[in-house]
Amino acid sequence: MTTNRIAFQGEPGAYSHEACRSARPDLDPLPCRTFEDVIEAVRSGEAELAMLPVENSTYGRVADIHHLLPESGLHIIDEAFVRVHISLLALPGTRLEDVREAMSHTVLLGQCRGFLRRHGIRPVTGADTAGSAREVAGRGNPSLAALAAPLAGEIYGLERLADEIEDRQNNTTRFLIMSRQPDAARRAERMMTTFVFRVRNIPAALYKAMGGFATNGVNMTKLESYMVDGVFTATQFYADVEGHPEDANVRRALDELSYFTSSLTILGTYPAAPLRENQRHAAE
């Protein structure tokens, strides 16, 4: 039975929660402890969709996600980008000069070094961003603040002493929205296709496999490799390309790819997020 929920990993107020509210405001967010729990919630019918982060513009791909996607049994039906805005959150009535320590996930702490240094605030490592906000709210110590999304402040009753304090102003996380059923309908003029593959054990197999995308004019926006089952000779590749498998040039490229692969699995075809077009225009 499908429920009107979208599952995400983390505490309420996490950036994944923010992605759910932004991309699927009509669904109720369902927090889960691990990525595996998120996937299982959708597979079991406890949630309709999964919101999974795959990469960050500053820190690269999210660990373990590429291993989980092919085995999840789920299908990518959309993508979402969330700008990582970081706020300094503290107990109501606290002044900025009262704060001596700030707690957050170690990755987020590293993104606010300049602000913390300027204000003489010592970083304290917490389990995660939203969890740190919850802990600050529970401790009742005005000298301890949290670094998290503004949403976490709303949920845990904290005041925002400073907003957008991240060192890099373009820090963005990409999320994939996944469902039990695929949806390859042309829902937008610009479509994306994501797939994983393993090349055959022959000389120059990867070079030959990629040739079809070049000769057919298919833009590959991402190609990443990762080890399979801890074996150095077994490598799987994750790829994003612009276009739909029914497009003549994409179909020819995938057909050529299949000649040089031992396995090829399309994980999903979905509309390209508006951010892609905006960044393309900015680069021109």
UniProtKB/TrEMBL annotation:
<dbReference type="InterPro" id="IPR045865">
    <property type="entry name" value="ACT-like_dom_sf"/>
</dbReference>
<dbReference type="InterPro" id="IPR001086">
    <property type="entry name" value="Preph_deHydtase"/>
</dbReference>
<feature type="site" description="Essential for prephenate dehydratase activity">
    <location>
        <position position="173"/>
    </location>
</feature>
<dbReference type="InterPro" id="IPR002912">
    <property type="entry name" value="ACT_dom"/>
</dbReference>
<dbReference type="GO" id="GO:0005737">
    <property type="term" value="C:cytoplasm"/>
</dbReference>
<protein>
    <recommendedName>
        <fullName>prephenate dehydratase</fullName>
        <ecNumber>4.2.1.51</ecNumber>
    </recommendedName>
</protein>
<dbReference type="InterPro" id="IPR008242">
    <property type="entry name" value="Chor_mutase/pphenate_deHydtase"/>
</dbReference>
<keyword id="KW-0028">Amino-acid biosynthesis</keyword>
<keyword id="KW-0584">Phenylalanine biosynthesis</keyword>
<comment type="pathway">
    <text>Amino-acid biosynthesis; L-phenylalanine biosynthesis; phenylpyruvate from prephenate: step 1/1.</text>
</comment>
<dbReference type="GO" id="GO:0004664">
    <property type="term" value="F:prephenate dehydratase activity"/>
</dbReference>
<dbReference type="GO" id="GO:0009094">
    <property type="term" value="P:L-phenylalanine biosynthetic process"/>
</dbReference>
<feature type="domain" description="ACT">
    <location>
        <begin position="194"/>
        <end position="271"/>
    </location>
</feature>
<dbReference type="InterPro" id="IPR018528">
    <property type="entry name" value="Preph_deHydtase_CS"/>
</dbReference>
<keyword id="KW-0456">Lyase</keyword>
<keyword id="KW-0057">Aromatic amino acid biosynthesis</keyword>
<dbReference type="Pfam" id="PF00800">
    <property type="entry name" value="PDT"/>
</dbReference>
<feature type="domain" description="Prephenate dehydratase">
    <location>
        <begin position="5"/>
        <end position="180"/>
    </location>
</feature>
